[in-house]
Amino acid sequence: ETVPMGPFIPVEVVNPGFEAPIALPAWSFWTDAGNGYSATVQHDTADFVEGAASARIDIASALGEPWRIELAQRDRSFVQGKVYRLTFYAKADRARPLTLSAQKGSPDWRNYGLYQTVNIDSTWREYEVTFEARETTSESRVQFMVGAATGAVWIDDVRLNEVPPEIMRREFDRGLVLLNPTREPQTVTVEGKFRRIVGDQAP
């Protein structure tokens, strides 16, 4: 049995449903035009899953490297060792990959724990990925990378949450075992009368 230790803690995402025009400081859009990539992004009020708009990316030229076209939100904060969950809706004009990343926005461009590809298709679907932050930072980008293939991609309702720690719990006739799988100390309310076993191993 897994015992959750509290509610999800939202991490601010600015303009998460793309209700406002897609622009800085909320969202940035970059295309590596110097290396043959071409794409545009627009505030789409005709096709969406939440609210009244979505982000539509039209990729006219792509040479297979996802990171060369990206929609990103900059300056997101993470704490080392914490687990985060990125949730969003997406679809495309045809089946294709969508790469997700959390990366520094300047040299050395290091990754903060998220680099994952999901496969999307022509139906709006909700996607969810979790990752553990490799270090504490306030300058990570949360990136949607679409340079792998041409076509159209829509994104909507982007949410980022800190996932609360969980405790593994198993009860026996005369005992209770609690296992903390995280690096952080946790407080658990235990009903009944129990005596903690101390020492390097159980007697």
Keywords:
single chain, 203 residues, mainly beta, 5-stranded antiparallel β-sheet
Structure description:
The strands form three sheets. Strands 2, 4, 5, 7, 10 and 12 form a six-stranded antiparallel β-sheet that branches. With 203 residues, the chain is mainly β. The chain contains no helices and 14 strands. Helices cover 0% and strands 52% of the residues. The model has no long low-confidence stretch (mean pLDDT 90). It has strands spanning 2-4, 9-11, 28-31, 38-44, 54-61, 69-78, 83-92, 96-104, 111-120, 125-132, 137-145, 151-163, 166-172, 175-179.
Mean pLDDT: 90
Category from helices, strands and their pairing: mainly beta
- The count of DSSP E runs of length 2 or more, i.e. the number of strands, is 14
Q: Give the radius of gyration.
A: 21 Å
Count of alpha and pi helical runs: 0
Largest sheet: 6 strands, antiparallel
**Beta-strand level of the residues, as a percent range?**
over 45%
The shape is elongated
Distance between the termini: 24 Å
Q: Secondary-structure element order, as H and E?
A: EEEEEEEEEEEEEE
Given as residue ranges, the uncertain stretches (5+ residues, pLDDT < 50) are: none
Helix content: under 10%
Q: In a nutshell, what does this entry contain?
A:
This protein has no helices and 14 strands. By secondary structure, it is mostly beta strands. The strands form three sheets. Strands 2, 4, 5, 7, 10 and 12 form a six-stranded antiparallel beta sheet that branches.
